[in-house]
Amino acid sequence: MPHPASPTEIPRAIPGTTLFDGDAAQKGYQLNAMCFSFNSAANRAAFAADEEAYCARFALTAEQRQAVADRDVPGMIAAGGNIYYLAKLAGILGLGVQDVGALQTGLPVDAFKAMLLAQGRGQSYEQSIAEARHG
């Protein structure tokens, strides 16, 4: 039986996906720390009261601050955000899991839901996303 590829042999690019690796974790540390802080109701309230000051408290980069201000979840991921931590922020912003999935795929929420249903019926991701994008 062949041995699995070593970490250095694993491709670092997955088409259409922002890879969350050690580099991304370092890049997004402040953003993810801020999102982790939302486990506390007092911190969620502080963010809602003054987003800019709350972001400054965690020393978010300009890129991270802009993505938060724009509610740009894919931008937050590109800025090192981990989707599991970003889910805490998404909840504060009133975004559900399907809203975030739609943002990540560039689809309207209804089309994203239809894509999920198509996959549940056995259609491949490639087929279902092509259908969702082009009708």
- Secondary-structure element order, as H and E? HHHHHHHHHH
Helix vs. strand class: mainly alpha
Percent of residues in helices? 55-70%
Radius of gyration: 17 Å
Number of helices: 10
- Globular, elongated, flat, extended or rod-shaped: what is the shape? globular
Q: Give a short account of the largest sheet.
A: none
Q: What low-confidence regions span 5 or more consecutive residues with pLDDT below 50? A: none
Terminus-to-terminus distance: 44 Å
> Number of DSSP strands?
0
Descriptive terms for the model:
135 residues; mainly alpha; 0% strand
How would you characterize this protein structure?
With 135 residues, the protein is an all-alpha fold. The protein is 64% helix and 0% strand. It has 10 helices and no strands. The chain has helices at residues 22-27, 29-37, 41-49, 51-57, 62-70, 73-78, 83-92, 97-105, 109-120, 125-134. Helix 8 (97-105) crosses helix 9. It starts with 21 loop residues before the first helix and ends with a helix.
Layout of helices and strands:
Blueprint: H1 22-27, H2 29-37, H3 41-49, H4 51-57, H5 62-70, H6 73-78, H7 83-92, H8 97-105, H9 109-120, H10 125-134
Briefly characterize the structure.
The chain is an all-alpha fold. It has 10 helices and no strands. α8 (97-105) packs across α9.
